[in-house]
TrEMBL record:
Keywords: Ribonucleoprotein, Ribosomal protein. It comes from Conidiobolus coronatus (strain ATCC 28846 / CBS 209.66 / NRRL 28638) (Delacroixia coronata). GO terms for cellular component: mitochondrial small ribosomal subunit. This is Ribosomal protein S8. The keyword GTP-binding does not apply. GO terms for molecular function: structural constituent of ribosome. The keyword Lyase does not apply. It holds the Pfam family Ribosomal_S8.
Length: 172
């Protein structure tokens, strides 16, 4: 029970969205990578717009098999209501090839304390094999997911839209 004068211990993600700071992309990266390490067929992630956008990019790039809506128990296509909103999740079907994970590593680049911003020209340098600031070159089979003013995109899409932004994560 909370007593007056006692400090509350808040999770790292608490209050970040309200302050328009970086959402908890590191939580998503950890869940996906741990799911592959444990050789799970499906994993669940919190139902947020950012998580859905990143999951859709992972699906389009072939790192996961499907994205489904559900609750904390499993896939469930019922409507989201104020009564069940706390239990709503996205379920990702992980992909394996010859019993080996398709995704070997997924890591957050920007952190709440240090956002890594890049311009379109810096994105072009990274894709071309060069370094731009703290960002290393794009490796074969790797994707970089960025948050632009127009939305969340894979780095090649951001370049084609001529949009810079901050780098969320890398996956390969």
């Amino acid at each position: 029970m909370f007593q007056y004068g006692q400090k509350l211990i808040m999770p790292k993600c608490a209050g970040l969205v309200a302050k328009r700071q970086l959402p908890c992309i590191h939580d998503l990266c950890a869940r996906v990578q741990n799911g592959y390490i444990a050789k799970l067929k499906n994993i669940s992630i919190p139902e947020t717009k950012m998580n859905l956008n990143v999951a859709q990019i992972l699906y389009q790039q072939g790192f996961i098999s499907s994205v489904s809506r559900g609750n904390h128990i499993g896939i469930d296509y019922s409507m989201t209501t104020p009564e069940n909103i706390a239990t709503r999740r996205y379920w990702l079907s992980l992909k394996y090839r010859n019993n080996n994970p398709v995704l070997s590593k997924m890591s957050a680049v920007s952190k709440p304390s240090r956002k890594i911003f890049a311009t379109v020209d810096e994105f072009k340098t990274i894709v071309g094999g060069g370094r731009a600031g703290m960002l290393g070159p794009l490796q074969p089979g790797e994707i970089i997911i960025v948050n632009t003013p127009l939305g969340v995109y894979e780095i090649h899409e951001a370049i084609s839209l001529n949009q810079g932004g901050y780098v969320l994560c890398r996956a390969h």
